[in-house]
Specification:
single chain; alpha/beta; Rossmann fold; 8-stranded mixed sheet; 10 helices; AB_hydrolase_1; Pimeloyl-ACP methyl ester carboxylesterase; AB_hydrolase
Length: 281
């Protein structure tokens, strides 16, 4: 497994054996802390300098899942902000049900606290949903959205089929939850609560998507275990000016499986967004 900053185009972990064994640890941050917001303590960390990029992780995970991406984006001249979604990782939650809109409000609160006026947002799975909701609700704060591996209504998901790769990812999430969470013995209730949200949310219509006015890349893996390819195509058609990108040879876990290739696609998107919006800084 490469050390932070040494991820190469050649590194592959297609079966997630390295991830299950070792995770994908973040490098030492320039700054980190917790923000109290709306019944939760939200953990964040920042790295580097330049145009701001926020990385939003997937459901049941935490910011450490971006361990292969942070060094690459810092090296390409970005200020990178990672946030543990409420109830995930080092962040806490209250007794209310999960919602993507509530988690989106946490992101804006962290941006306000750190005086980040505008950022590009790279979202993975649930994090992608949060990112697109931010683009719809607070477009002045979002330079662009890299939307990887997610649905925007329940029709976009496949019937769940367990696989060894999914099982290894889940096992890593369980270990990390026990190590990081303020409620380390509550993994099953956490999974149940996040699962309840996923079954009923999000519920955005084609009309809602048509109102999004920031640059968007809809990014779908060739072998995604959870999201229908036709749903990704529908999203790209429904969001004005959206680009559809297919990542070959990988699944829902592409940032871990082939990080060099994933990072290249992210950087290309950020370069396009920066060129289109020189005020993003």
């Amino acid at each position: 497994m490469p050390t932070p900053g040494e991820t190469t185009m050649e590194f592959h972990d297609d079966d997630l054996r390295a991830f299950e064994a070792d995770g994908a640890a973040l490098p030492a941050p320039d700054d980190q802390g917790h923000l109290d917001h709306d019944g939760a303590r939200i953990w964040y960390a920042t790295y580097g300098s330049g145009p701001a990029v926020i990385l939003l992780h997937g459901g049941l995970g935490h910011s450490g899942n971006w361990g292969h991406q942070v060094p690459a984006l810092v090296a390409s001249g970005h200020r990178v902000l990672v946030i543990d979604s409420r109830g995930h990782g080092r962040s806490t939650r209250d007794s209310r049900p999960y919602s993507y809109e509530l988690m989106g409000s946490d992101v804006l609160a962290v941006m306000d606290a750190l005086r980040v006026e505008k950022a590009a947002v790279v979202g993975w799975s649930d994090g992608a949903c949060i990112a697109l909701i931010l683009a719809a609700q607070a477009p002045a704060r979002v330079a662009g959205v890299f939307f990887f591996g997610c649905n925007m209504d329940p029709s976009g998901t496949k019937e769940f089929v367990p696989t060894p790769v999914v099982d290894r990812c889940f096992a890593r999430h369980a270990k990390d939850y026990a190590a990081l969470s303020a409620t380390p013995d509550q993994f099953k209730p956490f999974v149940d609560a996040v699962g309840a949200m996923m079954k009923t949310q999000p519920n955005y219509t084609a009309g809602d998507l048509a109102g999004i006015r920031v640059p968007v890349a809809i990014v779908q893996s060739e072998h995604d275990e959870f999201i229908k390819s036709e749903h990704a195509e529908y999203l790209a058609r429904s969001i004005p000016g959206a680009e559809l990108i297919t990542l070959p040879g990988v699944s829902h876990f592409a940032p871990l499986q082939r990080p060099g290739e994933f990072n290249g696609v992210v950087r290309a998107f950020l370069d396009r967004v920066h060129g289109a919006d020189p005020a993003w800084s």
